[in-house]
Amino acid sequence: MKAVVLAAGLGRRIGAPESGVPKPLRKVLGLPLIKRVILSAREAGIREFIVVTGYLGEKIRENLGEGRSLDIKITYVENRQWERGNGLSLLRARDYIDDRFILLMGDHLFDPEIIKDLKEAAIKDDEVLLVVDTEPASYIDLQDATKVRLEEGRIKELGKGLREYDGVDCGIFLCGKDIFRTLQEEIDRGRETITDTMNGLARKNRLFFCDSRGRFWIDIDTEEALKRAEETILKGLIKPTDGIVSKYLNRPISIRISRWLVEREISPNMITFISFLVSVVSAIFLSLGNYVSTIAGGILVQISSIIDGCDGEVARLRFQSSEYGAWFDSVLDRYADGLIILGMVIGLHRYNGGITLWVYGYLALMGTLLTSYTAMKYDALIRAEGGTRWRFGRDTRMLMIMTGALLNEMYYLLITLMVVTNLVTLRRLYILRGA
Amino acid sequence: MKAVVLAAGLGRRIGAPESGVPKPLRKVLGLPLIKRVILSAREAGIREFIVVTGYLGEKIRENLGEGRSLDIKITYVENRQWERGNGLSLLRARDYIDDRFILLMGDHLFDPEIIKDLKEAAIKDDEVLLVVDTEPASYIDLQDATKVRLEEGRIKELGKGLREYDGVDCGIFLCGKDIFRTLQEEIDRGRETITDTMNGLARKNRLFFCDSRGRFWIDIDTEEALKRAEETILKGLIKPTDGIVSKYLNRPISIRISRWLVEREISPNMITFISFLVSVVSAIFLSLGNYVSTIAGGILVQISSIIDGCDGEVARLRFQSSEYGAWFDSVLDRYADGLIILGMVIGLHRYNGGITLWVYGYLALMGTLLTSYTAMKYDALIRAEGGTRWRFGRDTRMLMIMTGALLNEMYYLLITLMVVTNLVTLRRLYILRGA
Questions:
Q1: B332 plus B423 within the same structural domain
Q2: ipTM score assigned to the predicted complex
Q3: CB-CB: which of A359, A370, A433 is closest to B342?
Q4: Maximal C-alpha separation, chain A
């Protein structure tokens, strides 16, 4: 299925023309707005795009290219009359469409899941399905939004000025290929916006809607909306499988770091590696055994735990998430875990050379690696249940190590780790029985 | 989709009536023949069965029950005229069929994949699709098989006596619901076998075929065929991800043990646990450190490695494989691995109390657990490629430990394990990059 992306407008309320940057190229967390739109649609499985440009179109074209490096195909169409209604922009895509298609706005960001739903919907050639948000979140500017009145699965009327309304137009459409006929008719009558065409379809009972179901979307018209979009996207980085320490301590910090990193030239795998190096350094400090180096080691452990969140966050912000990346991260984490415990044991060994210490260390290592080994299956359960179960993960372990170091109680910490990690593993064996 | 299973015959060539056991209840690796047929079909997603009984039908009924414990539904129909052609048995199922269905013989075993293919095939109500083996394996009795002549996707003729033929009838059919009309017509003319009906359909160009593509199937008419079936099923227990030690040393032994275990009252999880206990005992022996106990420990390590194969084998032979079972096995294996290394280190520590020994052991433990941690992703690659890659797995590790113990070179063994397991993990990180 193809997608048409409208990116012809000026964006007067967001700095153009003074800045010389057309709105679709304004950066949101390191990526131009329109690139985010296209990559979100790609995540939902769309591979072919028709981008309609107008104001400073050549800049957009230069920036996005033909899409080969993104594994998609982008075709450009120019609308020289971009100062008139946006219906004229859509009309320019007519020659490239031979089937139903997705219509997107170059300045509307959205959760890819919305498109996945839309792709599955069934419409006739002369019908259109519009995504409607019936419970707009607080970050939506209702003043400026196009409202809709609904009736029995259909949209009755659209308009910015509607007094009474049931929801808000998300600017995401699934269009039958015959939309261009209605579009042409409306334009011929001087009604040149897409909203005009939609009202035309609504009058003919051919405009349906599908609910956005609380998923993220936002229309970026102002600097303020852009800021709100960034905040909302960043908040979405917290994962359902995040442990309590991760959620309330690590993420708030790592997200701030990621926000900074996402605009820098650094790959997620490089961040993974840096987090690993910090762990190695922390293990060396811990192995020295004196109080000062133990404290330094403990703090570094917690820092590496925080940085460990950034690789995935940056990858998701850039639509670069990969199975290998996540796996590479998890394998290096296991080495880091092992080296940190080894550092602790060597540090303790300097005062107490006994065999029990080492046996504790071995068992703590086994328990630690086995909580990770069993995590995959346990996390699948958490996700299936909607993320309510208690999870003892790396976030908690690392915080425990820092705490033990600050209290200078590394021996009891080691015993605690040994007991807790192995009990957690046994608990999972029990909970998941019969799964 | 329903399946009709014909189980009315006498089985004169396989001991009945002297034994008092109808052929469908003859045990093949611990399970009655017909139960294997039904469970194979269940594995392919069939949940409703119509079983046509005749000779000693009440015994079959008693043995299988209504299928509730197997999560299926079995309906029984009796054919009192079981001494006549088997077409009469199929005819008895008529009232229970209202859509296309799978027709199976109660004495033909097969690979469930054959049924999975068949379920996807498209036929009309008056057509039949027969599975044909165009390259029968050496264990198929060609003398006794029903041969087929093929022509342009259709079957032209069937018969035991065909001189020239292109393949062999596997006794597995996908039937359109109108087959009963042709069946009745043929029976009315005195042609009472299913082969007669198939020849009738072939004459009307309504009999198609689908190739068994080298997959396992066998018609069990004689004691010899039963033995061949058992051998073939047992050989099929070797997995594509098996390492070289497993394939050529452990499996040949574990399969013999499983063959014995499968007829005993022991659950796969219990076998897993016994293998774990043997590992624990081996770790204790290794920790004693003297040569005799080291040898005993080393041999027990290899024995536990062999028993470790039996849980999965018995589960598969009984159609009891479960995701949890495999996972439970793998988690206990990791504990066993860890304890064995700990045992080795304690054993060595009795002669050499240095910290390096403990660090080597620690790193060997990390490497060992990480080869398992990375195995899942690596195994997926092996399976995708058809099982040709070198795999350093538990089978090799355990054999190395026994060898080291017999040679009384536990210290070098430990260093070797440390180096090899960590290199294997790094190699996997490299090989799987970009996957």
A1: yes
A2: 0.81
A3: A359
A4: 92
In this structure, the answer to whether residues A197 and A182 fall within a common structural domain is yes
Clarify whether residues B243 and B372 are in a common domain. yes
Contact B362 A362 (CB under 8 A): yes
A369 touches B at CB < 8 Å: yes
Are residues A164 and A220 both part of a single domain? yes
Residue pairs spanning A and B at CB distance below 8 A? 90
* Inter-chain residue contact A362 with B365, CB threshold 8 Å: yes
Cα–Cα distance measured from residue B39 to residue B64, given in angstroms and rounded to the nearest whole number: 11
Fill in the DSSP letter of residue A72. S
Compute CA distances B387 → B11, B243, B312, B327, B382, whole Å. 40, 10, 19, 21, 5
Statement to judge: residues A154 and A291 lie in one domain: no
Residue B122, chain A, CB below 8 Å: the answer is no
Which range of residues forms the domain containing residue A166? 2-231
- Which residues from A are below 8 Å from B353, CB to CB? 353
The string of pLDDT tens digits covering residues A65-113 is 999 989 999 999 999 998 898 999 999 999 999 999 999 999 999 999 9
One domain for residues A36 and A163: yes
Contact in structure between B348 and B401 (CB atoms under 8 Å): no
CATH number at residue B136: 3.90.550.10
Same domain, B175 and B270: no
Residue whose entry in the numeric block shows the structure tokens 């790592």: A254
Number of domains comprising chain B: 2
B338: closest chain A residue by CA = A366
How would you classify the pairing of strands B108-110 and B27-28?
A: unpaired
Mean pLDDT of B231-256: 91
Encoded tokens for B85: 């052609």
- Residues A348, A218, single domain; the answer is no
Q: In this structure, what CATH number is given to the domain that contains residue A376?
A: 1.20.120.1760
Residue range B387-415, pLDDT digits in tens: 677 888 899 999 999 999 999 999 999 99
CB contact, 8 Å: B351 with chain A?
no
Does the beta carbon of B384 lie under 8 angstroms from any beta carbon of chain A?
A: no
